[in-house]
Amino acid sequence: MNREELFKRTKDVLNPETTRDERLVFFGVGSGGARVAEEVARFGVGNIMLVDRPEERMEEHNIIRHSLGYSSLGALKVGALKNRILDINPDCNVETQELDVLSDREKLKGVLGAFSPTQVHICTDNESSKHAINSVAVSLDVPILFAGVFDGGCGGEVGRVMPGAACYACMASYLNRTVQIDSPEETFDYTNPLNEEEKSTPALNIDIAQITLIQARAALITIQAKHGLISDLEGNYILFGNRKVEGMFPRMLHSEIWDIPKLDNCFICGEEGALTGENEGAEEIIAAASADAQG
Amino acid sequence: MSLIKNKERLVLEYSAMKERWGDRAVWCCNSARTKFWWDYTITGCGNEMPIRILYPESYPSNPPTIRVMCDLPPSTPHLLPHNTMCWIYPGERRRTNNKWDPARDTAAVAVGAAHRWYMAFMVWITTGRWPVKDAKD
User: Fold this and answer.
1) What angle, rounded to 10 degrees, do the helices at A282-294 and B7-21 form?
2) Nearest-CA distance from B46 to chain A in Å?
3) Helices H, strands E: what count in chain B?
4) Which of chain B's residues have a Cβ under 8 Å away from the Cβ of A292?
5) Do B89 and A103 touch (CB under 8 A)?
6) What is the pTM assigned to this prediction?
7) Whole-angstrom Cα distance, residue B94 to residue B40?
8) Alpha carbon distance, N-terminus to C-terminus of chain B
9) Which of A11, A61, B52, B136 would you label with A33, given CA atoms 20 to 30 Å apart?
10) B105: which chain A residues are within 8 Å (Cβ-Cβ)?
C-alpha cells in the first residue's frame, strides 16, 4: 500500500493527515452506519471502532441496501465491514465489538472509555438504543453524531451533539413537540406490544445513502472546524427531504439546518440533581428510603 | 440501568415520585438493595387497584413498567403478559404523542398513566367498552 498514491486524487481538497489521528466509533453498522464508516475511512480517518449487537450477521434481505454484498452473507457485520474498510484504506486501524447497548451499560461505558473516541456516531435504528448510547457518550465531552431515515425514505435527519450543548435526549424531546413525522391519526399498535420483531425503516438504498452522506459530511466538517480549516456547522440538526412531503418538505431535495436549544434541566445531560437543584445527601436519602422500605 | 449504580438518577426518581404522589408512593427494595421499585394503590369509583412500578435494566432509555398486583378478568384488554399495563406506545420509533421522553420523564409519569388506565378499566368493567381507540379501529 502506498499512502501517497492512495490519497493522490483527494489530498488537494482534504489533507489525509488532518483526519489520521481521529478516533471514530460507530454504533450500528447496518445500511446507514456501514456507509458512514466506509466514507470516513476514505477521508483518511486513522482509527475506527465498529459496534453492533451480538451475532448481528449479514442476511440476504440486507444486501440490496448495504455496502456489503453476497460475499459477506452469513458473516458478522462488524467483521465483514472491517475487511471492507481495510480493503479501501489498509492504513486504518479498525476494531470491532459485539455489544447490546441496552442491557450492558457498564460494558458500553468500558468500551467507550477504553477507545477514547474523538467522535461517537449513533447509527442504530431504534430510539431506546440511541438514548442509551447518548446517556453514556455525553459524559465523554466529544461530538456525537446521529442520523435517521424517515418512513418510506421520504427524507431524514442528521444531528450533532457538541460538548455542553443539547444532547440527543434534549433534541428528541424538542422534536417530539414540533415535528410531526407520523400521521397524527395513528393509534397504538397493541397487536405487537412487545415489538419483538426488529423492523427496519422501509426505504430505498439511495434514500438512506443520501442521509448517510450528510452524516459523513457533518463528521468531516466537525474535524475540519476543530482544526480551524473551515467554519463550523451553523446549527446542530439537519433535515433533508428526498421527496416532497406535504407539510414537511415543500419540494424534493429540500434541506434545513436548525439550532435546537439545550433543554433546561435535561435529566440526561443537565446538571446533576436537576429536579431538586442539589444532589447533596444522595447516600442518606437512598439509605433512609431503603430503610423505610425494609422496615 | 443501572439505576442502582446511578445515585443521581435514584435521587431524581425518589424526589419526583414523592413530590408528585407523596406518601401514597411507597419506595421498596430487596434485602440486598440491588433492586428498587414503587408500590402504589390507585383508588376511585369505590374500588382500589394495587400496582407496582418497576425499572427495567435499560431505564431510562426505556420506560418503567406497571404491574397490576391483583387478579383481573382474563379478557382484560390493554394488558400485557404478567399483568403488565399497556400504558405507552410500545414501538421503537419516535411518536408525536404517548411517548417516553428520557429527558423529561421519571417514573412519576407512569403513576399518572396508571390512573388513566384504571379509569378506562372501570369503564370497560361497567360497559364492556374500552374508551381508548385501538390500532385496529
Assistant:
1) 60
2) 28
3) 2, 6
4) 27
5) no
6) 0.84
7) 29
8) 36
9) A11
10) 267
Nearest residue to B41 via CA among B17, B54, B25 = B25
- Taking residue B49's Cβ as centre, other Cβ atoms within 10 Å add up to 20
Partner-chain residue, chosen from A125, A170, A285, that has the shortest CB–CB distance to B103: A170
**Bridge partners for B33 per DSSP:** none
Please say whether the dihedral angle defined by the alpha carbons of residues B99, B102, B105 and B107, taken in this order, is positive or negative: positive
Which cell numbers in the block locate residue B131? 374508551
**Are the beta carbons of A135 and B6 closer than 8 angstroms?**
no
- Quick: pLDDT tens for B54-94: 998 888 888 899 999 999 998 999 898 889 998 876 555 55
Residue A148, min C-alpha distance to chain B (Å): 10
* Contact between A29 and A77 (Cβ < 8 Å): yes
Q: What is the pLDDT of residues A42-71, one digit of tens each?
A: 999 999 999 999 999 999 999 999 999 999
Which of A131, A106, A96, A80 minimizes the C-alpha distance to A25?
A: A96
- Within the 183-222 window of chain A, which residues sit less than 8 Å (CB to CB) from chain B? 184, 186-195, 199
